[in-house]
């Protein structure tokens, strides 16, 4: 059913498309919009006649609040009920991934403009404050994947060799060696996020390029247990986590001049996006047995294995530039998203 809301028993993966407004520099260059929405049919039309239908579509006037309420709130509820959740932002560089995920410059952004992460954090701590009978432990970690190598953004001292993706006996994915910080309030989470962002952006002059070519995975893990006086012996504690993923830019690197190191880099990055597309597409195929979901193909899919499919809820938000200049990339992104449905 494509009626823009979640239903119980729905497939665990939902696909949203968000088209940003033209930016002032694009208006200045007189670029035209080549994408429009048919809101009540959840359709996106690019160019004259390419029509795509998704679970949710958001146009240039969509607000951060709306995107949060429609796509993310159900995942937060599910997190507090003990299930894992993942949200990805997919799209070319400049399409609005970071704006939508909301992982950067949080303190300086107006409250209405805040993206998904700060809203989810606020709602989580609100939930915690309203459930005094439950002991919550909240932890955060922040990992970057660049050229199929992991980097701990909360502890740059940790070397690549010391980070390992493992699956424990219960099927939970863990990154052995990564720092997890226990947090008590929303401000602490935001501080850690900003600290990781600073780590992500400092270093060589190539860092801007690097950050558009890497995947950033910010994870909030919660552990809940009834307080002693309410506890019944049979009741175990519940653990769940929410991954917020700002993916590498999906743009095809130009064929010319794309040799050597640059070429290897683009192949490895695209292999992560490719693997993710394959996993999500396999999850949407009812004939596919869970044993055949190709999680092992890339680091990103290995890390997210316990949070994609099964009881986990996933939303992929495909971000699109409306500009005529970006027609080819936008069409590619819509095709990728369409395969994921
Ligand atoms: P990406 O992370 O995909 O490279 P950004 O999130 O940095 O892209 O967005 C590129 C520019 O577009 C930024 O200046 C951002 O503020 C603006 N932008 C993106 N999405 C929207 C939106 N929905 N409404 C208004 N401005 C947006
Ligand atoms: Mg970005």
Keywords:
globular, 341 residues, binds magnesium ion, alpha/beta, Kinesin, 31% helix, binds adenosine-5'-diphosphate, nine-stranded mixed beta sheet, 9 helices
Largest sheet: 9 strands, mixed
- The structure class reads alpha/beta
Q: Could you tell me how far the N terminus lies from the C terminus, measured between alpha carbons in angstroms?
A: 12 Å
Order of helices and strands: EHEEEEHEHHEEEEEHHEEHHEH
- The strand count comes to 14
CATH topology, by name, is Kinesin
The CATH architecture designation is: 3-Layer(aba) Sandwich
- Kindly report the average pLDDT value: 89
- Rg: 20 Å
**What low-confidence regions span 5 or more consecutive residues with pLDDT below 50?**
none
CATH class category name: Alpha Beta
In one word, what is the shape? globular
Q: If helices are DSSP runs of H or I spanning 4 or more residues, what is the number of helices?
A: 9
Q: How large is the share of residues in beta strands?
A: 15-25%
Please identify which CATH superfamily we are dealing with.
Answer: Kinesin motor domain
Summarize this, please?
The protein is an alpha/beta fold and 341 residues long.
Fold and architecture overview:
The chain is an alpha/beta fold. The chain has nine helices and 14 strands. The protein has one domain: Kinesin, CATH 3.40.850.10. Helix content is 31%, strand content 25%. Strands 1, 5, 6, 7, 8, 11, 12, 13 and 14 form a nine-stranded mixed β-sheet that branches. Helix 2 crosses helix 4 (116-129). Bound molecules: adenosine-5'-diphosphate (ADP) and magnesium ion.
């Amino acid at each position: 059913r494509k009626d823009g809301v979640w239903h119980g028993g729905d497939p665990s993966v939902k696909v949203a498309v968000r088209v940003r407004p033209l930016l002032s520099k694009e208006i200045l260059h007189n670029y035209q919009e080549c994408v429009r929405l048919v809101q009540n049919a959840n359709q996106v039309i690019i160019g004259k006649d390419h029509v795509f239908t998704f679970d949710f579509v958001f146009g240039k006037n969509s607000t951060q609040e709306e995107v949060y309420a429609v796509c993310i709130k159900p995942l937060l509820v599910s997190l507090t009920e003990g299930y894992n959740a993942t949200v990805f932002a997919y799209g070319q560089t400049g399409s609005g991934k970071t704006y939508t995920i909301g992982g950067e410059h949080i303190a300086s952004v107006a409250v209405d403009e805040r993206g998904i992460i700060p809203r989810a954090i606020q709602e989580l701590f609100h939930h915690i404050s309203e459930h005094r009978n439950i002991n919550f432990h909240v932890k955060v970690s922040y990992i970057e994947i660049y050229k199929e190598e992991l980097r701990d953004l909360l502890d740059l001292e940790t070397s690549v060799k010391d980070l390992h993706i493992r699956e424990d006996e219960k099927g939970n994915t863990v990154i052995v060696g990564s720092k997890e910080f226990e947090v008590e309030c929303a401000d602490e989470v935001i501080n850690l996020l900003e600290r990781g962002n600073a780590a992500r952006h400092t270093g060589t002059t190539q860092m801007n390029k690097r950050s558009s070519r890497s995947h950033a995975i910010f994870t909030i893990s919660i552990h809940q247990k009834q307080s002693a006086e309410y506890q019944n012996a049979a009741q175990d504690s519940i653990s769940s986590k929410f991954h917020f993923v700002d993916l590498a830019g999906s743009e095809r690197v130009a064929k010319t001049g794309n040799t050597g190191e640059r070429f290897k880099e683009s192949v490895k990055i695209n292999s992560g996006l490719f693997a993710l597309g394959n996993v999500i597409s396999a999850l949407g195929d009812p004939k596919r047995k869970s044993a055949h979901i190709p999680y092992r193909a890339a680091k990103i899919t290995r890390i997210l294995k316990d949070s994609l499919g099964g009881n986990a809820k996933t939303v992929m938000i495909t971000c699109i530039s409306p500009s005529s200049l970006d027609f080819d990339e936008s069409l590619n992104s819509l095709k990728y998203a369409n395969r994921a449905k």
